[in-house]
Design brief:
By secondary structure, the protein is of the alpha/beta class. Helices cover about 55% and strands about 10% of the residues. The chain has 2 domains: about 270 residues, TIM Barrel; about 150 residues, Up-down Bundle (Four Helix Bundle (Hemerythrin (Met), subunit A)), CATH 1.20.120. Strands 3-4-7-8-9-12 form a 6-stranded parallel sheet, with no helix packed on it. Strands 1-2 form a two-stranded parallel sheet. It is globular.
Length: about 475
């Protein structure tokens, strides 16, 4: 959303809603010459202090008005203070009259690309553990600078790019690519993606190392093209971009204070996209999105074998078991003092304990959100539908609902232990105990739910 100073309370409210809804990422525009906007780094710092889980990044930082040495230390500092929740979006500069009016340089397109490449070298050098660093550059350079502070996790440098030279820079140097609708719309993504991939391979890199984050905009209502219509149509559009172009994150432009859209994005669109992508990777059809309203089958019809509500619930449970296994594997890697680093950067082979804590945190946060959303949907829709169709299920549904409360407490307990662990990485024993307790409760609950409910769901034709 635009960081409007006049609507600063709405900005905070909207980001807090995104954090509470379980979204992964918030981006803040950076136009330092815009007098109606809050300063981006000041705002990001306040947002980091007020949120608990969501990651933050400038979308994208205006390099001509932000020296790369200062950017490097600012990003690392905020990453440390936020527990590893910062990424760094970078832009070469665009509105040159406004930049020059604020005392910045006026660069040609070629000069801007070269300056950005030098800046990336400066920033990465200042995140190393070496005693002093030197970086040669015509615009940006270091001459014996002392690096530090080191960030809490390997911060990704995500570059906003559209033109051929910038796309080649992304493939050669960047950790991520952040295009925006309006500057690069979906019909142009294929050619741009191919340019990034070619440049990555020419530089000896795997194109899969480059994270693709798309700034998108849309509106609900009648279907009139990309990201219009119902949430299911939005989800199909976005899942297609994952499949066709490798995008793995989408940042939705919203108005400050539009909490309803944020929640709909989190509770309806995002789960459907995740389900569709997971199903495509398994080679199966995506299960119906649990957060959408059920659609009654035609009178007298019966669901095909293997596609009933009971089968959908079993697949959802299997996903929860898989995610729980991922959390436990990450915790085991933490206890061993090392982990596969592909979650952070593919060229790293080992992570120190603090970085493994970050990986465990990502697993824990994602799993907590998934379980909480699934149980909320059951409590608000599935269980009432079952009780209405068969009052005899009342006692078992009451017990399962009570178990949801116990699992929620176990999730909160594991999350508190993780927060403590971030400040004291060498002692993960308490988190281990809490995760084992969570595993015990959740696995037993899923088994009981399947034993008690799968047959009635299919018998009664209940949508899941």
């Amino acid at each position: 959303m635009p960081p409007l100073a006049a609507r600063r309370d709405d900005v905070l409210t909207t980001v807090l809603a995104a954090d509470d809804a379980g979204l992964d990422l918030v981006g803040v525009q950076d136009h330092p010459y815009q007098p109606a906007f809050l300063d981006t780094w000041t705002l990001l710092s306040v947002l980091a202090a007020r949120t608990t889980r969501i990651r933050l990044f400038p979308d994208v930082a205006n390099l001509p008005l932000r020296p790369p040495s200062v950017l490097a230390r600012s990003a690392a500092s905020l990453d440390l203070l936020s527990g590893g929740r910062v990424e760094l979006g970078l832009g070469a500069g665009y509105f040159w009259d406004a930049v020059a009016a604020d005392g910045g340089p006026r660069r040609t397109p070629g000069e801007a690309v070269d300056a950005l490449a030098e800046a990336i070298g400066v920033i990465r050098a200042l995140w190393t553990g070496r005693a002093r660093v030197r970086v040669e550059g015509r615009v940006h350079h270091l001459d014996g600078a002392r690096p530090g502070p080191a960030p809490a996790h390997p911060i990704g440098i995500w570059v906003g790019a559209y033109q051929p030279r910038m796309l080649r820079l992304v493939g050669r140097l960047a950790d991520g690519w952040v295009p925006s609708m309006g500057y690069l719309d979906p019909p142009g993504l294929a050619a741009a993606t191919a340019a990034v991939d070619r440049a990555a391979r020419a530089a000896g890199r795997d194109p899969g190392e480059i994270r693709r984050v798309y700034n998108v905009s849309g509106r609900p209502g009648a279907r009139e093209g990309f990201l219009t219509g119902a949430p299911a149509e939005w989800a199909a559009d976005l899942a297609g971009l994952v499949r066709d172009h490798g995008f793995s994150a989408f940042v939705l432009g919203v108005e400050s204070g539009d909490v309803a859209t944020v929640r709909r994005w989190a509770e309806e669109v995002a789960p459907m996209v995740r389900d569709a992508v997971a199903a495509a990777r398994r080679g199966t059809a995506a299960p119906p999105a649990a957060a959408t309203a059920p659609v009654a089958p035609p009178a007298g019809s019966a669901p095909p074998a293997g596609s009933g509500g009971g089968d959908v619930l079993r697949r959802i449970h299997d996903h929860l078991r898989h995610e729980l296994g991922g959390l436990r594997q990450a915790l085991a890697a933490l206890e061993a003092g090392a982990a596969d680093a592909t979650r952070a950067r593919s060229h790293l082979r080992r992570l120190d304990l603090r970085r493994v804590c970050w990986a465990v945190g990502a697993h824990c946060a994602a799993h907590c959100r998934t379980v909480a959303l699934h149980h909320a949907i059951e409590d608000r829709r599935l269980f009432p539908d079952l009780a209405g169709a068969d009052p005899g299920l009342g006692p078992v549904l009451a017990r399962l609902t009570e178990e949801h409360e116990g699992i929620a407490q176990a999730l909160e307990s594991a999350d508190r232990a993780l927060s403590a662990l971030a400040n004291d990485p060498p002692r993960p024993g308490e988190l281990r105990a809490r995760v084992e307790r969570l595993s015990e409760l959740l696995l037993a609950h899923l088994a009981r739910e399947e034993d008690a409910l799968l047959a009635p769901i299919d018998r009664l034709g209940i949508e899941v």
